[in-house]
Amino acid sequence: MNTTALHQFGASLLQSHNIDTENKDKQFAVRFFNQLDTIEELFNYIYGDHPSRNQSFDALLTSLIRTYQTRSTTLLKKDLEKEKKGNWFLSNQITGMSLYVDRFAGSLKGLAEKLDYFNELGVNFLHLMPVFESPAGESDGGYAVSNFRKVDERFGSNKDLDQLIQKMNKADMYLMLDIVLNHTSHHHEWAQKARAGDAYYQDFFYFYDNRDIPNQLDQTMPEIFPESSPGSFTYIPECNKWVMTVFHNYQWDLNYTNPAVFVAMLENVLHYANLGVDILRIDAPAFIWKQVGTTCQNLPQAHVLLRLIKQCVLVASPGMALLGEAIVAPDEIIKYFGTDNYVAKECDVAYNATQMALQWDALATGDTRVMLSAQHPIMQKPYGCTWISYTRCHDDIGLGYDDYMIERAGFNPYQHRTYLKNYFAGWHEGSVAAGALFSVNPKTNDARISGSLASLCGLEKAIEWNNETETENALRKIILMQAHSMFMGGIPMLFYGDELAYTNDYSYLQDPGKSYDNRWMHRPIMNWERNERRNIEGSFEARIFNETKKLIRTRNTLPIISDLKNTTWMTPHNIHVAGFLRSYENKKLYCLFNYKSTASFVTWFAFKEHGERPVKLKDHWTGEIFNVGNDNEYFVLPGYSFAILESIDK
Ligand code: GLC
To answer: Relative to the CA of 394, which ligand 1 atom is closest?
Structure first.
């Protein structure tokens, strides 16, 4: 369609839905016409030649209008407030926590009763792990969704979710929910119809009559869960066909070459927007496009689809930001913020999975050189977008950075990765970590790491050994890791239980629906009686809780920590210390982290390499004030400690 025809078509659609383009709905109409050309261009790029292109495009635009028309006045008001603030999610005043509703608080109602706890800690943003219907025993922690609109009875009802959201809103809290875009559960209505032979719904998935194409794809597609769910295809005897199942065999991949799938899933995205989601976590977006001869990850079409979703959200629910959960190589992660004409116009947020893994690397080796060598792609993040900054989440830790980054730091990549895996699995002599290898691929020797923050930092073994020095080291490591990710830039996302140093929970081994997946060892069930220990002076729970709380408070008082693309790495004068400078206007904040168990020395010259030389520095963590010394003198960081030093010269 040419522009005039497209705009005429758009205008008639708005009219037929009684949109008042001149007055009441003017702002919406402006957004609609501003994005219309881009939406059409992106849509045509993927679906231009599809026989149902027109019908689907019409349905897509109609869903934007309907979303706007049914958006509550509270959310319309919030959209305006966020627009005034600009990129609200760059702020230093947001701290998140990711949690399983049932394991954290029993139910949605239970969670609504726990808002004071978050307030006590300083958390004002919640990521609820998937709450929509998912078959028990075949749920992948809720990432196998059988109904995108119905809250699973395990957690409560749709009404309970609404009430929780309202309560969070009143408490000025932000919410993140997932849209599991890449697949559905095999119990989803679409999958069941497809299984029963309905050709319309078989086209919602990737169905094959024989193994020809699956065999071709298998040659280049990496396996995601090689131990528990090897291969990427599952035979469905009822219809004598193969279906694509990249993750578990009960998670069927959606076929995004079919525009009806795209529109149906976009409608789910917009449905979540109208529930009141502030950041929508798009699960596994790297996988949404498949092509023979490729890894079927990070393909250009996947980016086009994400951009299309972004443009649609901008029109219908502009207050909702998008997070792309792409846990891929560093050069690929960065592309989810958009490239070329779409820089900062794709996902607003992504996980800084590279930095997270690099911190674990530094903790195991006591050496920060790999971390530094891997920063180049991370630092390319465009202004206006941000990271989720984290040390642990519900998933495993993948050592996903590139081999060349390890080589440049002077190590052999194979040996280096082997060391890290052995260290965290607790096999290496002298290792205090109590983790486990996840998804070991016997063909490639690849593996990721499971384990809770506290257990990986050594607390589990230290307690078992009744070893005071190791306990102290573990507690210091926990806070060092949290501090680093909190001051790095981005929205800190704590994982529930870590604020109280929960160690691994091995009860998953008794549950056949979970025992095949050791990620459950770091997904604890909160024990609220035990959580009271945070009030017992001298307990390690109190120490970790109070220090986590102090980190959040400290961060909240420092606007310089907002993600304003204002981070510069300091020269690595000491390989055990990671240091970066956050600067804003004439303010400077030097953040240093010692990954060695004993004291590290940093020449005062390190502080003089960035413009005006500071004379006095105040550590926001300890409150201490330092006079900057001569170049041949040192700033001393005790073992596993950090400093947040602000230049306080007038
Ligand atoms: C994401 C989730 C992970 C899940 C996978 C499949 O990576 O974080 O837990 O297994 O997607 O949905």
So the answer is: 9
pLDDT tens, 338-384? 999 999 999 999 999 999 999 999 999 999 999 999 999 999 999 99
Q: Is the pLDDT of residue 601 over 90?
A: yes
Tens digits of per-residue pLDDT, 397-427? 999 999 999 999 999 999 999 999 999 999 9
Contact 388, 350 (CB under 8 A): yes
The residue among 200, 148, 140 whose CA lies nearest residue 179 is 148
Of the candidates 403, 309, 395, the one whose C-alpha atom is nearest the C-alpha of residue 348 is 309
Q: How far is CA 442 from the centre of its chain?
A: 28
> Do 338 and 80 contact (CB within 8 A), yes or no?
no
pLDDT at 118: 98
Contact 258, 243 (CB under 8 A): no
Q: Count of residues for the chain?
A: 650
For residues 530 and 533, what is the distance between their CA atoms, to the nearest angstrom? 6
Query: 582 near 591, Cβ under 8 Å?
Result: yes
**Neighbouring C-alpha atoms within 13 Å toward the C-beta of 405:** 24
**Token pair belonging to 421:** 């895996």
List the structure tokens of 249. 């065999």
Please state, in angstroms and rounded to a whole number, the distance separating the CA atoms of residues 263 and 275: 18
Give the C-alpha distances (Å, rounded to integers) separating 357 from 326, 353, 489.
14, 6, 16
Considering only CA atoms, which residue is closest to atom 2 of ligand 1?
A: 283
Q: How far apart are the C-alpha atoms of 508 and 141, rounded to whole Å?
A: 12
Amino acid present at 608: K
Q: Which of 382, 383, 386 is nearest to 355 (CA)?
A: 386
Nearest residue to 583 via CA among 625, 554, 612? 612
CA–CA distances in Å: residue 318 to residues 62, 233, 289: 17, 38, 26
**Beta pairing, strands 183-185 & 251-253:** antiparallel
CB atoms within 10 A of CB 649: 13
Helix (H, G, I), strand (E, B) or coil at 12: helix
196 Cβ neighbours under 8 A, 6+ residues apart: 238, 239
* Ligand 1, atom 11, residue with closest C-alpha: 284
Q: Which residues contact 559 (CB under 8 A, 6 or more apart)?
A: 92, 584
- Amino acid identity, residue 576? H
176 CB neighbour count, 10 Å cutoff: 22
Active site residues: 283, 325
Average pLDDT over residues 126-138: 96
Q: Is 502 in the pocket of ligand 1 (CB under 6 A)?
A: no
Task: Answer yes or no: is the C-beta of 180 below 6 A from any ligand 1 atom.
Answer: yes
The whole-angstrom separation of Cα 214 and Cα 436 is: 31
